[in-house]
């Protein structure tokens, strides 16, 4: 289940070109494949942090006014 979740999040990170999140999801997926629960637990805060960085990026983008010439 952890491998599947990491793999799905990795696919989303690829579509968004979120490199930091991709790297951490790939590591989490590999840890799950090797049934390394200790490493997986260590990686989860890093995955959460990368998701938080992406969330902050989106929030900043939403706060940025769109120039009229783009509309």
The helix/strand series, from N terminus to C terminus, equals HHH
Mean pLDDT: 94
Secondary structure class reads: mainly alpha
Total helical segments: 3
Tally of structural domains: 1
Strand content: under 5%
Model regions low in confidence, pLDDT < 50 over at least 5 residues: none
Describe the main β-sheet briefly.
Answer: none
Rg, nearest Å: 15 Å
Distance between the termini: 43 Å
Helix content: over 70%
Q: Can you count the beta strands?
A: 0
Overall form: elongated
Describe the protein's architecture and organization.
This protein is mainly α and 71 residues long. It has one domain (2-64). It is 80% helix and 0% strand. It has 3 helices and no strands. It has helices at 2-16, 19-33, 37-63. The longest helix is centred in the last third of the chain and has 27 residues, at 37-63. The protein is elongated and about 50 Å long. The mean pLDDT is 94.
């Amino acid at each position: 289940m952890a491998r599947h979740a990491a793999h799905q999040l990795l696919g989303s990170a690829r579509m968004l070109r979120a490199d930091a999140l991709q790297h951490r999801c790939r590591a989490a997926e590999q840890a799950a494949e090797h049934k390394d629960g200790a490493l997986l637990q260590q990686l989860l805060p890093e995955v959460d942090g990368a998701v938080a960085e992406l969330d902050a990026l989106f929030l900043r983008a939403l706060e940025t006014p769109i120039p009229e010439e783009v509309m």
